[in-house]
């Protein structure tokens, strides 16, 4: 099931794992596995990938990074198939992603002896890239009655949905705001009128989908297996310039 109506789908370069994710979700449809169980599985896959990076097992690291991306899509697919959307799953997913990203870049810093400050810039750049992509994507989903579990503006704690505890939502929302609040505010400051402009064209969303976490992890995996680990951190620092370029395009042509 798609997060967008068919007429507004675009080629999402970060979502290459969706076909396999759907198969996994379909296999789990009539089991006791929940979307949260799948989220825990992608956390485990991410941690194994980090261990492999530290041990210079780059082919294995690449495998588990891509598996993490597939499972990251599968938890949402399972929630839609079972019709059990939850804020618990939505925020757990996001909190796990940012923590794993921080550890992944720490592991890359460890094996490349890169500057710690450049590593921090790369991590911040990756998070801002992902925030811009998610910001624009959620705007589309809300405009066209797609999946609305994610909100354009995360300003207050949502009311728990059926089947989840409000206490869990409260805790995970606070963690989300702590970890993502600064990135959300930065992107909103750069493009506060995005939700009120014209519909984003498909080519622009496809271009911005290179900021999606799945595509970012795919790039890291490719750099590792090609023996280009030294270029990972400089690349993501440099590619962050595209944040301003994409925002400028949207503002210039789609006010």
TrEMBL record:
Q: Does the keyword Transmembrane helix apply?
A: yes
Q: Which InterPro entries match?
A: CDP-OH_P_trans, CDP-OH_PTrfase_TM_dom, CDP_ALCOHOL_P_TRANSF_CS
Keywords attached to this Swiss-Prot or TrEMBL record, sorted alphabetically, are: Membrane, Transferase, Transmembrane, Transmembrane helix
Pfam families on file = CDP-OH_P_transf
Membrane spanning stretches:
38-71, 91-110, 116-136, 203-225, 231-249
UniProt xrefs under Gene3D superfamilies: 1.20.120.1760
PROSITE patterns attached to this UniProt entry: CDP_ALCOHOL_P_TRANSF
Family named by the database record:
Belongs to the CDP-alcohol phosphatidyltransferase class-I family.
Name of protein = CDP-alcohol phosphatidyltransferase family protein
